[in-house]
Amino acid sequence: MNRFHGQSLSWEFKDGVVELALHREPCNEIGSLTLEELERFVSALESVEQAHAVIIYSDLKAGFCAGADLRELYHRSQEMEQKEAIKGVRDYLKRIHRVMNTVDALPLTTIAAVHGVTFGGGFELALVCDIIIADKMARFCFPELRLGLIPGFGGIPRLKRDLGNGVVRDLLLTGRSINATKAQAVGLVSQVVAEGEALKVARVTASQLKKFDRRAAIAAKQFIKPIPYEELLKEIDIFCELFTQPAVEQGLKKFVESTEALPYLP
């Protein structure tokens, strides 16, 4: 898997580190194309030998990732009967969960180097990583309740795994964003670095990891990072149940018709 360049993302394997770069304008929204390329990425990882780390980052100035492609979700749901649309949503969520769970359980140390907008599904992608390094301009948010939904890519169970329930409730129920300094204070982010320095620091961190015995690193990760599979399945059920409600269609319609440059911002 030495190198790949797709429409939404690219990756390169060098010196024991796999770097996955997101580059889909305007802010790496995760739709069907990105999912297909993420599936290709996790499949390619199976053939990687002598790797010790994965770094996930964004090449775009706007931020790490704004979350799911809500425009695609809205337009596809409008083209189908409700029952068919729900099946499509459930199938999509199962696929994205397989990708997220695979990255979560990788026998490699995974690092998210984030900046700017890290919202919704982008926040959830960062949460599957073992370490989050954020530049000081990064912001984290779960805005899904404004659409009548909950996070659907595994965010709630993983946030509960990593943080106290008080922080989870605050982020989920208020929909407000927190900055990198606050995220570090509550234990979400391991390092806050200068603007534009997250990838550089992630690379330095990855180079340090190769000093450790891989078997010990894998054992340590498995011990301290259980994957909440049952809760992840329940999240899909709740999301699909909520998706049938009129409030969701109204919320998605309002988002799609917004004339704001960045309608996902709180």
Characterise this structure.
By secondary structure, the protein is an alpha/beta fold. It has a single domain, classed as 2-enoyl-CoA Hydratase, Chain A, domain 1 (Alpha-Beta Complex), CATH 3.90.226.10. The protein contains eleven helices and eleven strands. It has helices at residues 32-45, 70-78, 82-104, 120-127, 155-162, 165-174, 180-185, 198-209, 214-224, 229-243, 246-257, and strands at 3-5, 9-14, 17-22, 53-58, 63-65, 109-114, 117-119, 131-135, 139-141, 178-179, 191-193. The strands form two sheets. A seven-stranded mixed beta sheet has the order 1-2-3-4-6-8-11, sandwiched between helices. The chain has a four-stranded mixed beta sheet with strand order 5-7-9-10. Strand 2 and strand 3 form a beta hairpin. Helix 3 packs antiparallel against helix 10 (229-243) and helix 4 packs across helix 5 (155-162). It is globular. The termini are far apart.
β-strand percent reads: 15-25%
Architecture, CATH level 2? Alpha-Beta Complex
Helical run tally: 11
| Side-by-side strand order of the widest sheet | 1-2-3-4-6-8-11
Which term fits the overall shape? globular
Main sheet overview: 7 strands, mixed
pLDDT averaged residue by residue: 92
Give the number of DSSP strands: 11
CATH class: Alpha Beta
